Amino acid sequence: MNGLKTLATTAVLLLAAASAAHAGVTLDAIKKNGFIKCGVSDGLPGFSYADEKGNYSGIDVDVCRAIAAAVFGDATKVKFTPLTAKERLTALQSGEIDVLSRNTTWTSSRDSAQGMNFTGITYYDGQGFLVNKKLGVKSAKELDGATVCVQAGTTTELNLSDYFRANKMKLTPISYDKSDESAKSLEAGRCDVLTSDQSQLYAQRIKLAKPDDYIVLPEVISKEPLGPVVRHGDDDWFDIVKWTLFVMVNAEEMGINSKNVEEMKKSTNPDVKRMLGVEGDRGKDFGLANDWMAVVIKQVGNYGEIFDRNVGAGSPLKIERGLNALWNQGGLQYTPPVR
Amino acid sequence: MTELSSAPVKPPFWNNPQVRAIIFQAVALLATVAFGLYLFENTQDNLRRLGIASGFGFLSSPAGFDIIQTLIPYSAASSYGQVFWVALLNTLLVSALGIIFATLLGFIIGVARLSKNWLIAKLALAYIETFRNVPLLLQIFFWYFAVLRAAPAPRQSLSLGDTFFLNIRGLYLPAPQFQPGFGWVLATLGVVIVIVVVLTRWARRRQMATGQPFPILSTALALLIGLPLITFWLAGSPLHWQVPELRGFNFQGGLVIIPEMASLLLALSIYTAAFIAEIVRAGIQAVSHGQTEASFSLGLNSGMTLRLIILPQALRVIIPPMTNQYLNLTKNSSLAAAIGYPDLVSSFAGTTLNQTGQAIECIAITMAVYLTISLLISFVMNWYNRRVALVER
């Protein structure tokens, strides 16, 4: 019994010690630290990927940089923490990071029982399957009896089981902690199929030795809205993260980008003037500098720029905008106005 | 002390060492309890503030994910509680097999290390120095990503008589299928075991009394194999074998040893065997050489000397450090998570924790389980240690 008690206190200690670090309002703590602690993926081209020099790039990384630009007026004031899928939610709950920007799917249980707040959707994704062409499989419905590599602790793992159950197919799953291990196992033939969000499949395919030997099957078996996440209970911080993303999408809609933002400040359009902090106090309302939205656009860019350079036409992944196009261009990206 | 003095001077109570000791202990106890309470309250506060659900109710909700190796019935519709049992059994399986293999291998290497044959002794030395000095995680990766990945694809499987198949998905064996009537064979086996135990005791008593040895090992083996075989034949061979066959993507049916399990087991056994070998060597060398000489002069050969004279004495030195190795092996099995073997840390403290967000509960349960397993191993080994310990008469 004594042993059990010791264990219980040890476990309690874990959380208590971590929580001491974020006493008070998140924003105040961040300002005191001088940087934002941002949790990102441990290596996913296009979303979060560190080069040989340790410089991060990707959509998820740019979201963190934009938040830093909003808070400090300097997009470099971010400390990135690479996290596996299994570590990410606990890292946010315990206060090890201020914001989690790690292709994380927005679900009801994460919003409720797990104490998270999703701030928006950076990427509309869906789960797919990557297979070797040699198998001759044309549809996910033909995967009965297949061995499937999947990342542990993800919604993907649950969708996979649901899909095979719904279609009465036999499944042999292997759950790895890291996506790299899944990719290696697919190449070695340990598994027939690799399943993940489609964006990740494209990203992992270019990491394989012979990308052309593999195809992504047409089925998309789930909705995977990916976005930045903060902890429950700090509404001011929640607003800042949420609106940093909204501003970037709005900027694309208004035609403001990192190159023309200074010029646009002279615009006569009141919408543009409000957003860039030329007119009104919309910036100050967040407890930040009045022109923070302009700084975000100038230093990081609008949503379209970020998409293009990381995963879109300007990147090796060459993913179509698809669902991620603006609402007035056939996509789903629609955000509330700055007003 | 003070009785001698006619006018005793009563010292102040804080100078009384007994009172002081009690006060210090009380203060220490209070401080510990207060600290514990503070931690508990703080956690409760934080959980409430963050809106995280707590409690153990999640154990009965459906898990929704599949597991590659399950020793008991499990499907995606089973509960997280069932995940716990599946994961625990997987941990116990790999630990138990690891302990058996490591002990056998360790004993052989340890004895080989002391061999008079130069080559055997040096080979054993090389084995020990290599495997105990390379980190275990690296060894697991070596077996998993280097050695077992060299196995062929399912369609090019290596086969032995079209019943055993080896490919990158694992080692496929025929699965036994017990027909009615197999119970008779098991019953016979039970009866034979009782007979052997009784026989062994009788043989020992007779040898003590008369000095007449009885060939107990060969008799026991003959009984253990022979009688159940006869029953098996009489009952009409009530055992069928389901041979795995290639269908679709992979082999179906039969038993499979997955490479995740094989590499973990190989790495754990080989790594721990290196330490056990050194313990065995130390134990044997702790028995003075005079014992060997005395035994030889009584006419015992070297095998009997090892078995009857050296080992019983060496075991007294071997058992306590051996317990440590068993505990290490069991705890090291948690490295399974690195290669996707569904053990307790991977499936329960990993996936379940992540899908439910119940970090404190999952980690507390997992720690309690490892503690319990470790204490059980300690308990059994201590009991065995007391049995082999020198009885002073």
Q: How does this model look, in words?
A:
- The complex is a heterodimer of chains A (about 350) and B (about 400).
- With about 350 residues, chain A is an alpha/beta fold.
- Chain A contains 13 helices and 14 strands.
- Chain A folds into 2 domains: about 200 residues, D-Maltodextrin-Binding Protein, domain 2 (3-Layer(aba) Sandwich); about 100 residues, D-Maltodextrin-Binding Protein, domain 2 (3-Layer(aba) Sandwich), CATH 3.40.190.10.
- A 5-stranded mixed sheet of chain A has the order 10-9-11-8-12, with helices on both faces. A 3-stranded parallel sheet of chain A has the order 4-1-5. A two-stranded antiparallel sheet of chain A has the order 2-3.
- In chain A, helix 3 packs antiparallel against helix 12.
- The N terminus of chain A is likely disordered.
- Chain B is α+β, with helices and mostly antiparallel strands.
- In chain B, the strands form 3 sheets. Chain B has a 4-stranded antiparallel sheet with strand order 1-2-3-8. Chain B has a two-stranded antiparallel sheet with strand order 4-5. A two-stranded antiparallel sheet of chain B has the order 6-7.
- Chain B has 11 helices and 8 strands.
- At the A-B interface, helix 1, helix 4, helix 6, strand 10 and helix 7 of A face helix 1, helix 10 and helix 11 of B.
Labels describing this entry:
heterodimer, A: 339 residues, alpha/beta, D-Maltodextrin-Binding Protein, domain 2, 2 domains, five-stranded mixed β-sheet, three-stranded parallel β-sheet, 38% helix, 16% strand, globular, B: 393 residues, alpha+beta, MetI-like fold, 3 domains, four-stranded antiparallel β-sheet, two-stranded antiparallel sheet
